[in-house]
Amino acid sequence: MKKILMVVGSMRNGSFNQQVAKHIAKLLKNKAEVAFLDYKDLPFMNQDIEYPTPEAVKHVRSEVDSADGLWIVSPEYNHSIPAVLKNFLDWISRPNEANNPKAGKASADKKVTFSGIGGSNETAGCRNDLFNLCKFIGMNIVGDRGTGLQFNRETFATGKVTFSEEDNAKLLAQVDAFLAYL
Ligand SMILES: Cc1cc2nc3c(=O)[nH]c(=O)nc-3n(C[C@H](O)[C@H](O)[C@H](O)COP(=O)(O)O)c2cc1C
Question: Which protein residue has the closest C-alpha to ligand 1 atom 28?
Answer without folding.
Answer: 77
